[in-house]
Amino acid sequence: MRFHAWQSILLDITAFVVSVVLSLLAEPALKQGAYFISGLARVMWGIWFGLWIWTAIIALTGKRFKIYLIGSIAEKTAE
User: Fold this and answer.
1) Residue (of 65, 68, 69) closest to 3 by Cα position
2) Span 8-20, mean pLDDT?
3) What residues make up the domain containing 68?
4) How many folded domains does the chain comprise?
């Protein structure tokens, strides 16, 4: 159970950091009319939300699914 909690926390922190970086990159780009980074941020949030729902369902069934890199860190932290 602790593994799932840590993996969820680390997933949220990763999504937040990536979002902040994309926002900082998007602000100057939007002034020049480049909407690619803004679209990339929306895609990232969609992937994050889907992964969050999927891992929550897997955790509720009692199975363990490790997200690449994040799962290994969560496993070490939960021990």
Assistant:
1) 65
2) 88
3) 2-78
4) 1
Q: Which of 22-26, 35-39, 40-44 has the weakest average pLDDT?
A: 35-39
Distance, CA of 34 to CA of 44 (rounded, Å): 17
Q: 3-class secondary structure for 23-79?
A: HHHHHHHHHCCCCHHHHHHHHHHHHHHHHHHHHHHHHHCCCCCCCCCHHHHHHHHHC
31 burial class (0-12, 13-18, 19+ CB within 10 angstroms)? exposed
Q: Do 35 and 61 form a contact (C-beta atoms < 8 A)?
A: no
Nearest to 25 by CA among 13, 11, 15, 39: 39
- Does the pTM of the predicted model rise above 0.85? no
Angle among Cα 74, 56, 50 to the nearest 5 degrees reads: 100
| Closest C-alpha among 75, 61, 63 to residue 5 | 75
